[in-house]
Write a structure and sequence with these properties.
The chain is α+β, with helices and mostly antiparallel strands. It is built from ten helices and 22 strands. It is globular, with a radius of gyration of 21 Å.
Length: about 425
């Protein structure tokens, strides 16, 4: 199938932010009114170990790469208006640093100032950072030396937003949702074509166009070595009192780019402390997903989650980093009598520069890949439908221009 042909059938592997937004885009586009759509995911929805299903995700235009800042500004307008607005909370984002990462902060600040639609407050000291974030203590190493708060940024209830999106897709009554694990893409090595997928029970689903949107599991189905890497990031959760939530819920998220730690304002009597840094890897040797030789192996990082192992807990190093961060800025919340009551390793697939990988596969006809930069995939979810359509050749020239020049530091962090 040529890139500009309208497929009679589309198979989407993955029902996270990328997969569901793709299904939503297809359902809303009249050109695909006669296209059958199937979405396959290994778990029942919402998948509790998917990166897009969580208590909260930062929603921001605060990126050092100008194209992403502009795209995110468009997406954020949708969060405020017609994309799950009941799950969006605009309480601000404080971006800080104390080391070389201050350059990212400065570039991000310049981008949002150039766009000129956000309410920005520049912060010139740790004390200023502590003031806007309501911190009990302000050591520079923890809260940052300089930064700014974008009062027009916020956060979203990620699980709530994904459930909202699933319901929007279901309203069209056009998508066949299948719960099954994808084992191998159907490769035709003679014609260099992908025609669907083989499932774990050896049954097959055929389609004119297969869209791989499997997040951190994508590397099990195509060879992404040197392009994408799946890493696990630590998330820690702690119950708090109603008065503590009232005190902190209207404060901005604090995101320290120097130590990669952040705290999103609490909701539902739960505080989340997390880190997005280099992350953990889980090297796994698997049959080469694109090889005709069943004995050829490759080693890639693949998720190992609490669904894989219900007894899984985050490494002590990650738990300590989050607790030390909380102890340094909110010591009253980090007393020994108040442990984290739940933890999670959240798996993302990032490209080397943090950019999205949204493109037809250069080798395999009939295969479209949507992954990369997924730490903030949910943030861009309202706009991903337009990004997809621009890549698919639709009349989305304004966004197409942004997509074509997007690059640089991307969506990481």
């Amino acid at each position: 199938m040529a890139p500009n042909d309208t497929p009679s059938s589309v198979l989407i592997i993955g029902s996270g932010a990328f997969g569901l937004s793709t299904a939503w885009a297809l359902c809303r586009n009249p050109e695909y009114k006669n296209t059958s759509i199937t979405v396959v995911d290994r778990n029942t929805f919402p998948s509790t170990d998917g990166s897009s299903v969580d208590s909260s995700r930062i929603i921001r235009p605060d990126y050092a790469a100008a194209p992403y800042a502009r795209l995110a500004t468009l997406a954020q307008n949708r969060w405020r208006s017609d994309f799950a607005p009941e799950h969006y909370h605009q309480v601000g984002l404080c971006v800080t640093a104390s080391g070389p990462e201050q350059k990212y902060v400065g570039d991000s600040l310049a981008n949002v100032q150039n766009i000129g639609v956000d309410n920005i407050e520049v912060l010139n000291s740790a004390r200023d950072i502590g003031r806007v974030c309501g911190l009990e203590q302000t050591p520079e190493q923890a809260c940052g030396r300089t930064g700014y708060v974008n009062w027009s940024s916020g956060w979203a209830d990620a699980a709530g937003a994904m459930i909202w999106l699933r319901k929007e897709v279901e309203k069209f009554n056009r998508v066949n949702f299948v719960t099954a694990s994808a084992k191998k893409l159907l490769f035709d090595f003679t014609t260099s074509t992908v025609s669907g997928v083989t499932l774990a029970d050896d049954s097959t689903i055929h389609a004119d166009l297969t869209i791989l949107a499997a997040g951190a599991w994508s590397a099990s189905l195509i060879d992404l070595r040197g392009i994408c890497k799946s890493t696990g990031q630590v998330l820690c959760y702690m119950p708090i009192s109603a008065s503590e939530e009232a005190s902190l819920s209207q404060r901005p998220t604090i995101l320290n780019l120097s130590n990669a730690l952040f705290i999103i304002p609490p909701a539902k009597r739960t505080l989340k402390v997390a880190r997005h840094g280099h992350g953990y890897t889980n090297p796994t040797t698997i049959p080469h997903p694109e090889s005709q030789d069943p004995n050829e192996k490759i080693t890639v990082s693949l998720p190992y989650t609490h669904v894989t192992d219900p007894n899984l807990v985050i490494p002590l190093e990650g738990r300590k980093a989050c607790r030390d961060f909380l102890q340094s800025i909110h010591p009253s919340l980090a007393t020994p009598s108040r442990p984290f009551t739940s933890t999670r390793i959240c798996w993302y697939t990032d490209t080397r520069d943090g950019d999205f990988l949204i493109s037809y596969h250069p080798k395999w006809k009939g295969l479209f890949v949507a992954t990369g930069g997924v730490v903030t995939g949910l943030s861009f979810c309202p706009l991903l439908e337009i990004v997809y359509l621009s890549v698919w050749g639709e009349d989305a020239r304004g966004v197409q221009a942004e997509v074509e020049v997007a690059g640089g530091e991307g969506t990481g962090g």
